[in-house]
Design a protein that fits this description.
The protein is of the alpha/beta class and 298 residues long. It has helices spanning 11-22, 34-41, 60-68, 86-94, 107-119, 134-143, 148-155, 158-170, 175-185, 193-202, 209-219, 226-239, 253-257, 263-270, 273-287, and strands at residues 3-7, 27-31, 48-52, 78-82, 99-102, 123-125, 129-131. Helix 6 packs across helix 10 (193-202) and helix 14 packs across helix 15 (273-287). It is globular.
Length: 298
């Protein structure tokens, strides 16, 4: 969990950044002016500063320049946000800003920018401990997990898996920290976070999403809505569990090429929205109906 100072005179934008960044496990400190930010920085050293160019008392570029002239704060990365010209970006980087974001800020651009910057510092956990290798991080993750049998029980139910992720987040292992472990492990985006946690925490084999999907398909060949299930599993293989949830994935050209006919026809076929949501839940249960056998066991 990183501490991020957000400096902007617009309360709505500060709130937006707070919501987006705290969702990934970070602690957000807000400042509505440069003076307020400097007051905070006299006593604190955040992990990252995000500052708007336009402030009521001192422009953001000048604030960055002041921050970078303080020895204690010189290495703190800064992201400048503005709706201005490319010249502003050049000026911001000249005075020491690591990145520049143009308004309107998207969730994807914000998270990617913050993730890249913080990854250079390693994984930041509560207490300001910084982990820079998978070997350092794995024991810390294990200490935040339940015993293996309890983890197996939690694994097999969607709500309990989500509760597990919330518990890890409360212990400092937010989405960004877990994604950093994924990157260090070399698993890439082919593996679910649940499989990665099982692998690092208990030595379970690291199954790819494609392997889970194939095993699930083999059990669904006689399902009355196998065509829908197969398409949803294809989406899961390509993009993960969350990508299966939006209803509009049934309206993509690929879905129509598979003969599904769009969301209206799919809902009519399965018996309505409630039945479709139940189908999604059932499919996810099928995906995680079995846990891998730990390495070394038969």
């Amino acid at each position: 969990m990183a501490q991020i100072l957000v400096v902007d005179d617009d309360p709505s934008l500060r709130h937006l950044l707070d919501v987006l960044l705290s969702a990934t496990g970070h602690q957000i400190v807000e400042a509505g002016s440069a003076v307020e930010a400097l007051k905070f920085l006299r006593e604190h050293t955040p992990d990252l500063i995000i500052v708007d160019v336009t402030l009521p008392d001192l422009d953001g570029i000048s604030l960055v320049s002041r921050v970078k002239n303080v020895v204690r704060l010189k290495t703190v990365p800064v992201v400048v946000i503005s709706g201005g010209s490319p010249d502003l970006e050049t000026h911001a980087k000249f005075v020491g800003a690591e990145a520049f974001l143009k308004k309107p800020i998207t969730n994807k651009a914000l998270r990617e920018t913050v993730g890249v910057i913080l990854s250079k510092q390693g994984v930041v956990l509560p207490g300001k401990s910084v982990l820079t290798t998978l070997e350092d991080a794995t024991p810390q993750l294990r200490d935040s997990l339940p015993d293996e049998e309890r983890f197996r029980e939690l694994w097999c139910n969607r709500k309990s898996r989500e509760a597990l992720l919330r518990s890890l987040k409360n212990r400092g292992w937010g989405e960004e920290q877990l994604e950093r472990l994924r990157e260090w492990s070399g698993a890439g985006d082919r593996v679910d976070l649940f499989d990665l946690i099982g692998h690092l925490g208990y030595g379970w084999p690291l199954l790819k999403r494609s392997e889970r999907a194939t095993a699930c398909m083999n059990r669904l060949w006689d399902h009355p809505h196998a065509d829908i299930c197969y398409y949803l599993l294809h989406v899961y293989t390509q993009k993960g569990l969350e990508a299966m949830q939006p209803l509009d994935i049934l309206d993509t050209p690929e879905a129509k090429d598979r003969g599904l006919g769009g969301s209206d026809k799919v809902l009519a076929k399965v018996g309505g929205l409630k039945a479709y949501l139940q189908l999604l839940d059932s499919l996810e249960d099928q995906l995680y109906s079995a846990t891998p056998t730990p390495l070394g066991e038969s």
